[in-house]
DNA sequence: CCTAGAAAGATATGA
DNA sequence: TCATATCTTTCTAGG
């Protein structure tokens, strides 16, 4: 059985149906498709090459990878279209692209036990239909080894916190990391008086005030300082 | 440090050297290259697209995947060249190709603690050099299991808050936006009791609990999982 | 994602 | 204690 997000094009639905697959349209939270066979549940994210490149640029891809790999032991991202053309369209450098490929492959799981995400590049949507068809068939045939169970690491909480703290203006990843060491829950950070925030390495008086104001509201602060109005 | 098989072309060696990488030529058993940084040992198999297609056909690819994944926790196969052209050259059908692609991605990974093999397709050998360069650099930087930097403009307070809230597991941009409407400072969110969080549109009981626990510490939660209480 | 550069802040040093 | 120089971090812009 294949679950298909309601946002996906109608004609793909028809085509899949033609192939004799049982498809159900539904609003999906995480991926665009979910292939369910026996005990296997494999999400598939379909992206046009253009969207793929764009999502690398704005960081959406990494969030999605994170979502997929923390929620499923195994999933696919299928890029449809010719990537190098999309790169040209967007004026995206090859260096940046290659680097982000490595970044995503390294980040998604390497030495831990998170789920893995396989990225596949196909040329046309027709290939994509084939892809789903074969994926379904292989699973039916049981031509798979048992999928691993994912165990979410404690680190995930910490990473989410780091991300959270680094949303505070003036706080980047480095300072966020140090903040997490001291304030391991948002509550602690909120309850901390300014002098305590100041004690964190890399955070001085001015910044501590700014952080405090951001958390508690206070006076609207000029972010970045130079506000030429 | 990069180990490079003696069979690999001389000019790649020179190029890598130019990039300031320390390369040692050596007869390698398993892969063509091995990138060693800190505790990481990552083998890289370089294949021309022609050879890739051929190795799918005669089953060599499966053997190599097996070798890599049983000996190393993480490795790369880098296919250099345009695959669809290689398919034409060899008279290999798209169906067969896609089918075997799935076959190898399903087989290579799953089960137990076997390593995963990531396949990447690049167009030119120059890209391949870049690939090794960045792989080495990322490992040096320890940029391995780190989350991506969030690069959104923090131009105003509200945007920053939305980003911040959306770092909470289970909260995406949409929910974050609604949260900000109700809790316009992090302090208010922290001080809110669960029933108040629940009242926000799109947030149910379970999620409200999860959010609360994330903010206040509480029991370690499995992201996306059901929570026992 | 990358690069590069500007701006702001933290820190060390010496008088 | 306070200025000044230096290093680090964040943020912005453009590809």
Oligomer status: homodimer
How big is the Rg of chain A? 22 Å
Number of helices of chain A: 11
Distance between the termini of chain A: 58 Å
Largest sheet of chain A: 6 strands, mixed
Q: What is the percentage of strand-forming residues of chain A?
A: 15-25%
| Helix content range of chain A | 40-55%
Instruction: Specify the structural class of chain A.
Output: alpha/beta
Question: Could you list the spans of chain A in which at least 5 consecutive residues all have pLDDT below 50?
Answer: 220-229
Order of helices and strands of chain A: EHEEEHHEHHEHHHHHH
Strand order within the widest sheet of chain A? Answer: 2-1-3-4-5-6
The greatest inter-chain interface is formed by: A-B, 72 and 70 residues
Count of β-strands of chain A: 6
Overall average residue pLDDT of chain A: 85
Broad shape of chain A: elongated
């Amino acid at each position: 059985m294949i679950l298909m997000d309601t946002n996906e094009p109608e004609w793909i639905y028809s085509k899949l149906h033609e192939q004799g697959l049982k498809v159900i349209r539904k609003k999906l939270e995480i991926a665009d498709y979910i292939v369910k066979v026996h005990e296997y549940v494999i999400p598939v994210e379909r992206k046009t090459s253009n969207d793929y490149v764009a999502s690398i640029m704005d960081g959406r891809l990494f969030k999605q990878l994170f979502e997929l790999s923390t929620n499923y032991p195994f999933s696919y991202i299928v890029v449809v279209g010719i990537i190098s053309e999309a790169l040209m369209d967007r004026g995206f450098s090859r260096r940046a692209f290659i680097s982000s490929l490595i970044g995503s492959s390294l980040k998604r799981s390497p030495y831990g036990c998170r789920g893995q995400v396989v990225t596949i590049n196909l040329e046309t949507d027709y290939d994509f239909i084939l892809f789903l068809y074969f994926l379904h068939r292989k699973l039916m045939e049981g031509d798979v080894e048992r999928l691993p169970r994912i165990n979410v690491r404690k680190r995930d909480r910490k990473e989410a916190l780091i991300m959270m703290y680094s949303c505070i203006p003036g706080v980047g990843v480095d300072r966020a990391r140090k903040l997490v060491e001291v304030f391991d829950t948002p509550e602690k950070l909120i309850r901390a008086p300014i002098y305590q925030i100041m004690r964190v390495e890399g955070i001085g008086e001015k910044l501590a005030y700014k952080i405090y104001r951001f958390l508690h509201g206070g006076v609207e602060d000029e972010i970045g300082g130079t506000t030429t109005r």
